[in-house]
Amino acid sequence: MGLPANTTTGPSSAPNAADPMSRPIPSSATDLPPEALALAAKLFDLARAGDTAALIPYLSAGLPPNLTNHSGDTLLMLAAYHGHTDTVQALIGKGADVNAVNGRGQSPLAGAVFKGHEGVVGALVEAGADAEKGQPNAKDTAVMFKKEEWFGLLGVEEGRTVPGMVPTARPGGA
C-alpha cells in the first residue's frame, strides 16, 4: 500500500470515483476511505515500532510530519515514547514539531523522560524541545519520577516542587 499518485492531467468537469485525487477533501476522519485509514494506522504502527526505513519514504513522498492520530499523538510522540532514537532523529530531520502536544497535553520530551529513554531525551533537547511544554511538562515529570540524572539537561531548578505533589522524605532523613 502506498500513497496514491495524482494522475489528473487537467481540470475535469465531473469527479471520477475511480480516481482518489478527484474525491472531495474529507472534513473528518470518518469521511476518509478505508484505504486511507488503513495507511494511517500502518504509519502510526511504523513510528511506534521504530521502523525508520519503512516510515521515512512516506515523509519523503509528502506525508505531513506532524500527522496526528485520534488521540492527538504525532508520529514523533509515538517514536519518542517507545524509545526509538533513530526514528525520532529522522522525524525531526523531516520537520516534525518537537513541541507538539497530544490530546492529553503531553509532549514527546515528557513522554521520553517518563519512560527513561536517554537517547530520545538527548535528541529532543538537542533539537530544541521545550522542557516546560505540556502538562505535566518534562521538568515536572523528571521531578515526579526522580529522574535526577536529567535535571541539569532539562534545566530543573534546585528544590523544584510539583504543584499538588506531596514531597517525600529523602533517604537518611534529609
Automatic annotation (TrEMBL):
InterPro entries according to UniProt: Ankyrin_rpt, Ankyrin_rpt-contain_sf
Residues passing through the membrane, by range: none
Keyword Repeat: yes
Region of interest called Disordered, as start-end residue ranges on this chain: 1-29
Pfam family name, one: Ank_2
Keywords carried by this UniProt record: ANK repeat, Repeat
Repeat (ANK) residue spans along the chain: 71-103, 104-136
Gene3D superfamilies xref list: Ankyrin repeat-containing domain
Polar residues: compositionally biased ranges: 1-15
PANTHER family in alphabetical order: ANKYRIN REPEAT DOMAIN-CONTAINING PROTEIN 39-RELATED
The protein's name in its UniProt record: Ankyrin
The organism of origin for this protein: Saccharata proteae CBS 121410
